Amino acid sequence: MYIYYISYLNIPGGIDPHTHLNLNCMGMNTADDFYSGTKAALAGGTTMIMDFAIAHKGESLVEVYDKYRELADSKVCCDYGLHVGVSSWDDKVGTEMETLTKEKGINSFKTYLAYEENMLEDDELYRVYNKCRDIGALAMVHAENGKIIQMKAKELIDIGVTGPEGHVLSRPEEAEATQRAITIANQANCPLYVVHVMSKSAAKVVSVARRKGQVVLGEALAAGLGTDGTNYWNKCWRHAAGYVMSPPLRPDSSTPGYLMDLLANGDLQCTGSDNCTFNADQKAIGKDDFRLIPNGVNGLEDRMSVVWEKGVHSGKMDPCRFVAATSTAAAKVFNIYPKKGRIAAGSDADVVVWNPNETRTISAKTHNHAVDFNIFEGMICHGVPEVVITRGHVVVEDGQVNKPCKVEREPYTGPVIQVGAGT
Ligand code: URP
Ligand code: ZN
Ligand code: ZN
What is the average pLDDT value for the chain, to the nearest integer? Predict the structure, then answer.
């Protein structure tokens, strides 16, 4: 156990490798967009995000990527990158993956074993991973067994379990799907990044594969480290639905500590938020059927504080490991190091002045997100980003996001062009 007295630290700005600031789920857009989401990120000490341009079956990957660039460019307050989601396989998909890597700098592609509109069969997965290997890109996987989930969910609905607890009851731990994806990636000789590792059994699969020498990387989430799935049994429907995400939080209060142990010892490498927020009224579309509750939770603003509280303040990890797990590892994995993820001459001036002795209480009433719920409500966190600098601009001071301020000037008294006839 690490016990420190530390005063202020200057650390590289956080990098959140997993956000959804423009996901459309069941016809509804996330509450946080690229503006409110990146503002919340900066408030929490994260100076770069990586979001997902997800092409559904039959859609052009390049067109979807271009659309996301346009959406994000006009709104972001900090640097961002994109992964591209691949939901089908044919020669055109392969050619587009190549174009994205060679011409647009995309080097990570997310694949799905769940979600009807996105999931790939094993042979398709193998082909996508072969292509990733050939073009030097990193394959990512959402590892859950979509078909079993569909059947289990229907069984639960049929016996009257319609509330948010049905969401977790219908979703087996991700160990089987994680093992399957790792096996297929290994057959294709392709490195694999397992996004949102949420259960003990899935985390073990990642650890064992790494010990065998397979190139597998695992991502913990702020949600999985900071809270648990007992909330799905809360008597208040809005509260329980607020935690619905996939893979689900496990209803076992020892899972968050276990995942933190693995993040601390290096078995898991990165920490994301999977920020994908929906307001309570949006979630309520699934009030009679948990299958319709839009999936996703917050975490972008609070990720750094949650990892500090549960990792460093608890004595499980040292501050260097904290920097690796919240910033440097993601920069290395996604090929943006050393521009990002370190403080040094030549790197971007993304710096956080971190005060480990200050505390703050997380609340939806005070957060910078546009969503009306916070899964960490009431958590007291040691570790506050007092100053945040993104590309040399101070954007957070004394823990407050700077508002644009007016420049005081003398009134303009010079000539003004006359618009009208002849001009
Ligand atoms: O519940 C979640 N995680 N929503 C976002 C989509 C995904 O699978 O990452
Ligand atoms: Zn996912
Ligand atoms: Zn996600």
Answer: 96
